[in-house]
Specification:
Layout (H helix, E strand, L loop, with lengths): L1 H17 L14 H9 L6 E2 L3 H10 L4 H13 L7 H10 L4 H10 E2 L3 E8 L2 E7 L5 E10 L5 E6 L3 E3 L14 E4 L2 H17 L5 E7 L9 H12 L11 E5 L4 H10 L4 E5 L5 H7 L8 H14 L5 E7 L7 H13 L5 E6 L4 H5 L7 H13 L4 E3 L22
Parallel strand pairs: 1-2, 6-9, 9-10, 10-11, 11-12, 12-13, 13-14
Antiparallel strand pairs: 3-4, 4-5, 5-6, 7-8
Helix pairs in contact: 5-6, 7-8, 9-11, 12-14
Bound molecules: iron/sulfur cluster.
Length: 408
């Protein structure tokens, strides 16, 4: 009898260990078991991040903390400023939340913030942040300010998902770095946290209302970490954004990953960097496009539209003088969009000069040419807008395609 009780207890302990507490209530993007395996494989030396959710959840399980403890922890962190992030202040606040004293000490010895802002370059449209990772590498994040007609201010945080990028798109500064490394989900979440802290500390009006994965890297090449970060961004205990306020931007090298995102996070917005609807031109601008035909990409978009309830994707189209701004390109783009029966929306982005693009002799088209291309699309019934605002960060090299870190 005693031995069967022991056996049952042992089995229960094993089951408990292999299924850590998951911060479930308030989550809009469910966690995946594979993430827990991925996170442990990527364990790093030094303190772990408060935003490493699988590690925090495992710590909670191992130390008999409950979900309300985790919720309290994130309430403290999300309301903290630099002064209240001091260890003694955190200790007091966690104590007030009835955290057992021993667990507080262990928690604060195991976890901390692991990224820091090294440099801020302000521009009229926001600011670019050089962020140092725990391994010493540098990445970049951008805060973009939007002012509505009624005077309300909101910020979009543009986050990096990789250090550098393997895709080597010809117009992109980040592509010149090659892939230096992958970011963990915690490093992605800490970028948003640091920028949110900046807004708070500078006493800027408004708050962060959107997150876009348009910084350094191809998010779908770091799919597991990005998916886990989506859980934190949308979780009510953390950043609490609605999934539709988050955009994952891809150059679309993998139809399979687009389908996976549509299956696992259908309400998250998808932006596809198309840049040309003609296969041969696209391969010049995006060398990785050689691995996927434009028709297969279209099929993946249709799948996404179906899964997202018809919301469809944004098509990003960087307009480069004499390269992809011809009438033939406008016709191909029109045909591509009309096949999607109104489920796509085109963002026309005037090319932002980069050293990478300069090597190819890329130039920004004249405003008249941009307007003519736009008119061409509209005349055929394609929903399109010129994103003049993407030029706002130009003076700080924080505009689309301009992010690069020479010290990564
Ligand atoms: S545009 Fe995006 S996918 Fe292409 S090289 Fe730059 S960061 Fe990578």
């Amino acid at each position: 009898m005693t031995s069967s009780i022991l056996l049952i207890s042992l089995l229960l302990a094993i089951i408990e260990k292999s299924h850590p507490l998951i911060l479930t209530s308030g989550q809009r993007i469910p966690s995946r078991q594979s993430i827990h395996q991925h996170a442990s494989q990527n364990a790093r030396l030094g303190p772990k991040s408060f935003f490493d959710l699988p590690a925090i959840e495992k710590f909670a399980t191992d130390n008999d903390l409950k979900e309300h403890h985790l919720k309290g922890l994130y309430r403290v962190l999300m309301n903290a400023d630099r002064s209240t992030l001091e260890r003694t202040v955190l200790e007091e606040q966690l104590h007030a939340l009835s955290f057992p004293k021993k667990q507080i000490s262990s928690l604060l010895s195991t976890f901390s913030l692991t990224c820091s802002i090294q440099r801020i370059e302000k521009s009229k449209g926001g600011a670019k942040f050089v962020v140092q990772l725990p391994n010493g590498k540098l990445i970049e994040s951008v805060l973009i300010r939007h002012e509505r007609h009624n005077g309300d201010v909101r910020y979009t945080t543009c986050v990096s998902s990789q250090i550098g990028c393997a895709k080597k798109c010809s117009f992109c500064a980040t592509g010149t770095m090659g892939l230096v490394g992958q970011l963990s989900s915690a490093e992605i979440l800490e970028q948003i946290y640091l920028l949110q802290q900046y807004v708070k500390e500078e006493k800027l009006p408004g708050q962060v209302g959107n997150v876009v994965f348009m910084g350094m890297g191809e998010p779908l090449d770091n799919y597991d970490a990005v998916h886990e970060a989506l859980r934190g961004i949308t979780h009510q205990c953390l950043f609490g954004l609605k999934a539709k306020k988050v955009t994952v931007s891809t150059v679309g090298a993998s139809a399979q990953k687009i389908r996976a995102l549509a299956d696992e996070a259908p309400q998250v917005c998808l932006a596809l960097s198309l840049h040309s609807a003609i296969q041969s031109s696209r391969e010049v601008l995006i060398p990785s496009a050689i691995s996927i035909h434009i028709d297969d990409l279209g099929d993946a978009l249709d799948y996404h539209a179906c899964k997202s309830g018809g919301r469809g994707a944004m098509l990003e189209y960087l307009l480069i003088d004499g390269i992809n701004d011809s009438n033939e390109e406008a016709r191909a783009l029109t045909e591509f969009c009309l096949k999607r029966e109104g489920s796509v929306y085109v963002n026309l982005i005037p090319y932002n000069p980069t050293l990478a693009g300069d090597d190819f002799g890329f130039r920004t088209p004249l405003d008249e040419r941009i307007n003519a291309f736009h008119d061409n699309l509209k005349a055929s019934g394609v929903k399109a807008l010129v994103r003049w605002s993407t030029q706002n960060g130009r003076d700080a090299n924080g505009a689309c395609g301009q992010l690069v870190s020479s010290t990564a």
